[in-house]
Design a protein that fits this description.
heterodimer; A: about 210 residues; mainly alpha; B: about 280 residues; Rossmann fold; Alpha-Beta Plaits; 2 domains; 4-stranded antiparallel sheet
């Protein structure tokens, strides 16, 4: 049931799928070409957040064109909770796609840095926080109002990440304490934090959607 | 004969409208017409039955089971034909079917193909390009392809040409022949119900005004026409409603004998469902 609702989201944005595939390939290439110094994890953050935000916002916009379609699906034996969970599963599938594409690109294209598990989980947590805020807002206020959130995120990531990167480049921070923590603990912590964010956000979205008149 | 649907004490309030203590039952093997003018509360009642509206009080039982506690099981046994399709217009019919069908445990691909052929629908056609009649046929195909025992239709004939309306009524008759089923059919086009309905429920301003067998209702009322000069304050009370014009009056009554005693020179005709519906509404207004 869940997968069929995920498929529904893909069908709604099928005209953007090629664009999404190209975007996930294009962003790491652009970084390797124009700013090779900040490749690696930053490049992957951009790949994930742009692909996720653009596609998820497109799905939200398509859904908002047919607000009564959700009522038809919920008149069928699709529980409302499954309808919400499908959106989170959709996010994870997109993330997995971005990761696979990026890893393949790192293997094939010189200049694209490979990323380790800690980096992947960090980006997952970052994306989960963004999406975890976006989805409850979307279920509460609809696509039209939440598109401002989407625009703020795009601006913040476009300008914020390079600024932060430059700031950190000029400040010498002692990461030795962090380096002393075993990677397994950091990874577990990141994965756990992602699951917590996912669980809280999904719970809030289900609560909001279950109280909504369709 | 058991009840397929039982609605008891349904209440739901909005700013300018409320469902007030809505109660009715749908017997098995009956097509029940749910009638009322636009804005009477038909769609709100149906949406509440389907769990699409939250915060309503009351009890809804389908096949004797509480819908709140057995939502998934009961929705599996219901076919829904919404008023305007409620599809994702950018998808093709095959894509829409591929989303809806997995939700039902008894989905029959054979039935689906048979209905698509019967209605001459091309699965590869985009929903946005379908006419209103074709959309209704597709909605009906989805509703009938999973062995539904209760068919809930919200204004399915609204805006359709007479040929398609007639085809729809024919399909409803075929569906009922299988036995053990029920149809709940909301409409403001009461002429469709003259042909197929067994039971009628009238809702107005969020309240149920009557729930009765159609034949008993039609036999119980008469449309009486006579000279306006014969009307007085006393015999007006014998009518549900009276309309007057320069040629005389026409009134709906279920007390024909008393009317004839008071006004011997009247013409009595069998009324239509619409006459009776409007009679009740005008009396309440």
């Amino acid at each position: 049931m869940l997968l069929h609702l995920v498929k529904k989201d893909f069908l709604l944005v099928k005209k953007y799928v090629c664009f999404m595939m190209l975007l996930a390939i294009g962003v790491p290439l652009f970084f390797a070409w124009r700013v090779p110094a900040i490749g690696g994890v930053v490049s992957f953050i951009y790949t994930v957040t742009f692909t996720e935000l653009i596609i998820c916002q497109s799905v939200a916009a398509e859904e908002s064109k047919y607000p009564k379609a959700a009522a038809l699906l919920c008149s069928a034996p699709y529980p409302r909770g499954t309808f919400v969970m499908a959106k989170y599963a959709f996010f994870l599938l997109l993330f997995a796609y971005c990761y696979i594409v990026y890893t393949l690109m790192a293997l094939i294209v010189p200049g694209i840095d490979a990323i380790d598990l800690t980096m992947v989980l960090s980006v997952l947590l970052f994306g989960m926080i963004l999406y975890g805020i976006f989805l409850p807002l979307y279920f509460k206020y609809g696509a039209e109002k939440t598109k401002f959130f989407f625009m703020i995120c795009i601006f913040a990531i476009s300008f914020g990440v390079p600024m932060l990167y430059q700031s950190f480049a000029n400040i010498s921070i002692d990461f030795s304490m962090l380096a002393s923590i075993p990677a397994a603990i950091i990874n577990t912590g990141l994965a756990f934090a992602s699951i917590i964010v996912w669980g809280v956000s999904q719970g809030a979205s289900i609560l909001i959607f279950s109280k909504k008149d369709l | 004969m058991g009840n397929i649907l039982e609605v008891v004490g349904l209440n739901k309030s909005y700013k300018n409208f409320s469902l007030a203590d809505v109660s009715f039952t749908l017997p098995e093997d009956c097509i029940t017409g749910f009638i009322g003018i636009n804005g009477a509360g038909k769609t709100t009642t149906i949406r509440t039955i389907l769990g699409l509206i939250q915060g309503a009080s009351g009890t809804i039982k389908i096949f004797g089971k509480d819908i709140e506690k057995n939502e998934r099981e009961l929705k599996n046994r219901i076919g829904v034909v919404p008023d305007d399709g409620r599809f994702y217009d950018e998808l093709t019919m095959a894509e829409m079917k591929s989303i809806i069908a997995p939700a039902y445990s008894k989905w029959s691909e054979k039935d689906y193909k048979e209905y698509m052929d019967r209605f001459s629908l091309n699965p590869k056609q985009k929903i946005a390009t379908l006419s209103k009649g074709m959309r209704m046929k597709f909605a009906l195909t989805l509703a009938l392809s999973h062995g539904a025992e209760l068919l809930i239709m919200d204004e399915p004939t609204s805006g359709l040409d007479p040929l398609i309306r007639s085809q729809l009524l024919e399909i409803m008759r075929d569906y009922m022949k299988r036995g053990g089923k029920g149809v709940f059919f909301s409409t403001h086009i009461t002429s469709d119900l003259d042909k197929v309905a067994d039971m009628l429920i009238l809702i107005h301003d969020g309240k149920i005004l009557f729930e009765q067998e159609k034949d008993a209702l039609m036999d119980g009322f008469r449309l009486v026409k006579g000279d306006i000069k014969a009307l007085n304050a006393e015999n007006r009370n014998l009518f549900l409603s009276v309309r007057e014009n320069e040629f005389g009056f026409a009134g709906i009554t279920d007390k024909l004998a008393e009317v004839r005693r008071s006004i011997p020179d009247v013409l009595a005709e069998k009324p239509s469902i619409e006459d009776i519906m409007l009679g009740y509404i005008e009396r309440g207004a």
